[in-house]
Amino acid sequence: MANLAGAFAQMRIPREPQQNHDIPTRQLLRARASVPAVPQPKLLLTEKAVYEVLQSVDPRAQDRTDTGMSDGVNLIRNAARGTLYVEKRIKVVRESRRQRALAEIAVLTQVRDAGGSYATNTLVESFWDRASSYCHIILEYCNQGALDGTIDRYVEARHQVPEDFCWHVLTGLTKALCFIHSGLDLELANAKPRPGWNTICHLDIKPGNIFLTSTGQTGGYPRVVLGDFGCAVTWNDIRSGKESREILYQGTEEWMPPELEPNDHGIVGKYGMPTDVWQMGGVIQVVCRLMDVPDQESVGRNRPCGRAYSKDLNNMVCSVMHKEYAKRPRAIDMVGELKRLMRTRRLVF
Fold it and tell me: What's the whole-model pTM score?
């Protein structure tokens, strides 16, 4: 058998005479090679569905110096239904990252299992790929992007953001905070805070984590959706000792209120619901002033939003961005006055 194989290896196959069609055949092959192949979508398989990974929508793709939890954000499509979703992909290389990913999933699951909120990003499913050490979180897709993109467009156009839109964003964020802080769903008639609710503090509210979508929009403006709970902490985790009450290691330094200060080990100071409330005010301020980060000094001058905006809006933002932690209102305490001001402006709460 070995000799026979060797004989085949040594055989010379005679070349056929060249035919006239050889040249056009080579031209055809070259032409085919010049046509770019249509890339096949990458597939993401879970126990519930098959998704096609369409493209990266990570705003940090050009700047990998970002130190956040997310290692990639992709637009995906359910292969069977055609519905679009967002996949947040986290590389779990350390125990601390694993715990953070678990905490984010737990928070999103708590919100979803409580019926979800009109103003918070909805968890579809999550799973671990232990072979590649990735955690995958599948979320609702918001088709009008993040609020920071809206700010950029107004900056480029050199136009002021309409005040009605600022009130709309403030209302959406208030609804989100009422839900995560106390389980109060303001979309339901006669709703009340949920007894025994495990308070969730987002702790990283900024324009890049606030999304807009035409799905469920009212009053002519897109629905405002609070997303990215990668820094969120719950009261149960604080009480059990899983999270420190004094030091916060995640979050965005420029979006921390006055009582939180960075040092060599992280960010020092007490955090909680007032942190979220201050950041909510900071979002409205940067939308009005078309800035990148909040400015506490203008709050002290009672003009956080500027002279182009009403006294009511400036006063509301001053209240939630108060320098003293304990003097900021809770989101739930803002609802009555916010409803009144929205009615005055003939806006939908």
Answer: 0.84
